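Lecture notes, continued. The same structure-token format from the folding unit now serves as the input rather than the output. Read the line below as a description of shape only.
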């Protein structure tokens, strides 16, 4: 059942990175899409140090929060919105309320050649919406993606949300929104800063960090599921150690106080 469920997740486009194992079953992790590069690096480092495999499935936090009560075979859930973790913990689907591991940020991302400027105050976006330079604009779906809700709040802050609603291209998660923002089919988008500043994405466009107070804080929390064993506990503990925290910080996350 575990293998079948993971195959279904991959078929739905959530994506996965597998760190191969030398021994033992992998620790299976459901991770918010903004963690694609940071957590991939941390998991690879952990495998080298411990020999324990970690299998990462990336997607929207809201979708994972619905799958866990349905029996999804995850050992650990890293959400981009702590409310999902707190709710699942209260319902008894997680071992406890877990730990806050990072604070996320959002950024404007525009592809090379766009008529839109990478402006951290969104002044050019406001002008471009008014003069018609923006026909399509990408964000993650606010219905289930925390970074989509943060993007919506930022657009509301500068007064262009209503004008842009009919021009939005919604990603299933923030990683897909970043793909849309740099594909050339949109003039840009608002995505996770951790993705926008990564070398893999930065080569495709330009980005500008948006003010942290333009949206509710992206408090990112993780917790072990009820089925998690000792191997998952060890990886969970590793994620709170200085080496892992340094990787999160290097990828653009703010670290919570210890």
């Amino acid at each position: 059942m575990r293998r079948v469920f993971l195959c279904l997740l991959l078929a739905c486009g959530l994506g996965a990175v597998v760190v191969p194992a030398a021994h033992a079953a992998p620790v299976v992790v459901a991770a918010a899409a903004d963690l694609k590069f940071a957590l991939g690096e941390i998991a690879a480092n952990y495998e080298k140090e411990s020999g324990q495999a970690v299998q990462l499935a990336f997607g929207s936090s809201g979708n994972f929060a619905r799958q866990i009560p349905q029996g999804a075979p995850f050992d650990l859930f890293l959400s981009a919105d702590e409310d999902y973790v707190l709710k699942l913990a209260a319902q008894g689907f997680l071992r406890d309320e877990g730990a806050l591991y990072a604070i996320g940020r959002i950024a404007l991302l525009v592809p090379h050649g766009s008529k839109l400027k990478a402006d951290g105050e969104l002044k050019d976006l406001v002008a471009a919406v008014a003069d018609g330079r923006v026909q399509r604009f990408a964000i993650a779906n606010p219905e289930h993606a925390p970074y989509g809700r943060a993007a919506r709040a930022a657009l509301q802050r500068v007064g262009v949300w209503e004008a842009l609603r009919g021009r939005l291209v919604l990603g299933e998660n923030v990683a897909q929104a970043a793909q849309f923002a740099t594909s050339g089919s949109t003039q840009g988008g608002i995505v996770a800063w951790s993705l926008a500043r990564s070398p893999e994405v930065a080569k495709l466009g330009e980005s500008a960090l948006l003010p942290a107070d333009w949206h509710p804080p992206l408090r990112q929390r993780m917790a072990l599921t009820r089925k998690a064993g000792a191997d998952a506990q060890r990886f969970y503990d590793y994620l709170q150690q200085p080496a892992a925290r340094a990787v999160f910080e290097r990828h653009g996350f703010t670290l919570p106080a210890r």
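Point for the exam: The longest helix spans residues 36-50.
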